[in-house]
């Protein structure tokens, strides 16, 4: 039976849901020390870099009709890709825990149930419901949820910006380059996932473009709400802002459903990536297990700071996608029949190390762009020199 294809609209709704999250709003608050004008510039530049990469990753998955981790095999080989599948599952378990924890804390603030673990369980259960419905049957559910969330985020932005003046922002300062990198990091964290959705697209390049552009605007919007909350209300806890404005039930709906629609993508893609490790794994069952583990981590290991987690994701996946983009669009070579592509694994390791080193340097455009530029140039040179090399 022919696999059901997904529409441009349904993919756009998925990526709107991915962007509307408490984690994005919280990350936006970190940019407040720059002030609104510089902070906005950093948000736009960072998201431009990240979403262009998101588009290219989506095109690879759409044109080859492969999941994200299956496309990784095209550059690193069948067994060489296991490293990235494992790291991807690991980061998705981490994201699931981070999202559920932050959602539970915010929901507790917005509603009078004092135990965070209760909200963690509620959010985890709703994510499992989303998984059971399935990515190809979520069109109508997502359309309703996303319409509601869009309206509610407009209400939230009015509460944040209406009648407020800039207030002194407490906390450590942040450089412009570091702010750009925090803006790059969020779309970059979705790079190992986007092909899981574009692979079944009816209209390939258009779906990849719409997915990236919807995420760009929605994610920028979330960052701006977070940054604006810190600058104009002096409060970085958005749930408290909404409650103080009399939006208790509205706040709860935004928090719970934005957490569910975003974290569903993490759990679902963890299941898809698990299949890349072993075909015996059922992706839906794996996604449910990831949700259960993420919920347990959210309850028993509270997470209060995740900037370092974002930078770690960038250091792993920026050089990986740079190699994939070079192989697919520039060199036009696939190694999917091979087991290990040693030269690409070495280049990735060097790119990973370079990213970590660049974190100590304040670069105006952040770390991702220069790191990827170096990796792409090295890839092309190495291919020219060792183009005929037989990888194992």
Automatic annotation (TrEMBL):
Gene3D superfamilies: Hydantoin permease. It is a multi-pass membrane protein. One of its GO terms (molecular function) is cytosine transmembrane transporter activity. It is found in: Membrane. Signal peptide: none annotated. Keywords: Membrane, Transmembrane, Transmembrane helix. GO terms for cellular component: plasma membrane. The chain crosses the membrane at residues 12-34, 40-62, 82-105, 117-135, 142-161, 173-195, 207-232, 238-265, 286-303, 309-331, 340-358, 364-386. Its main location: membrane. The keyword Amino-acid biosynthesis does not apply. It comes from the Bacteria. Belongs to the purine-cytosine permease (2.A.39) family. This is Putative hydroxymethylpyrimidine transporter CytX.
């Amino acid at each position: 039976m022919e696999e059901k294809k997904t529409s441009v609209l349904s993919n756009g709704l998925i990526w709107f849901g991915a962007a509307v999250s408490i984690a994005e709003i919280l990350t936006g608050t970190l940019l407040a020390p720059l002030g609104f004008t510089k902070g906005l510039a950093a948000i736009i530049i960072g998201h431009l870099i990240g979403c262009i990469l998101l588009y290219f990753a989506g095109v690879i998955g759409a044109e080859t009709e492969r999941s994200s981790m299956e496309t990784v095999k095209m550059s690193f080989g069948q067994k060489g890709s296991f490293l990235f599948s494992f790291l991807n599952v690991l980061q998705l378990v981490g994201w699931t825990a981070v999202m559920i924890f932050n959602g539970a804390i915010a929901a507790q603030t917005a509603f009078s149930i004092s135990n965070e673990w209760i909200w963690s369980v509620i959010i985890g259960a709703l994510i499992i419901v989303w998984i059971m419905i399935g990515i190809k049957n979520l069109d109508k559910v997502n359309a309703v949820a996303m319409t509601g969330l869009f309206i509610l985020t407009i209400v939230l932005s009015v509460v944040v910006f209406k009648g407020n003046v800039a207030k002194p922002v407490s906390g450590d300062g942040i450089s412009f380059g570091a702010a750009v990198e925090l803006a790059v990091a969020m779309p970059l964290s979705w790079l190992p996932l986007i092909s899981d959705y574009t692979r079944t697209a009816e209209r390939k390049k258009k779906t990849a473009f719409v997915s990236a552009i919807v995420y760009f605007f929605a994610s920028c919007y979330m960052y701006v709400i977070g940054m604006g909350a810190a600058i104009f209300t002096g409060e970085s806890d958005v749930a408290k802002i909404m409650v103080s404005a009399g939006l208790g039930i509205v706040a709860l709906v935004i928090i719970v459903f934005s957490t569910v629609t975003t974290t569903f993508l993490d759990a679902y893609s963890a299941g898809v990536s698990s299949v890349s490790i072993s075909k015996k794994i059922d992706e839906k069952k794996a996604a449910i297990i990831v949700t259960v583990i993420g919920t347990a981590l959210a309850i028993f290991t509270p997470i209060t700071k995740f900037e370092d987690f974002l930078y770690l994701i960038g250091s792993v996946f920026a050089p990986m996608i740079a190699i994939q983009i070079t192989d697919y669009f520039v060199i036009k070579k696939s190694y999917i029949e091979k087991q290990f592509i040693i030269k690409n694994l070495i280049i990735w390791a060097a790119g990973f190390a370079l990213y970590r080193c660049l974190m100590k340097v304040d670069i105006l455009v952040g770390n991702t762009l220069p790191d990827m530029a170096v990796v792409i140039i090295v890839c092309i040179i190495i291919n020219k020199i060792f183009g005929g090399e037989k990888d194992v």
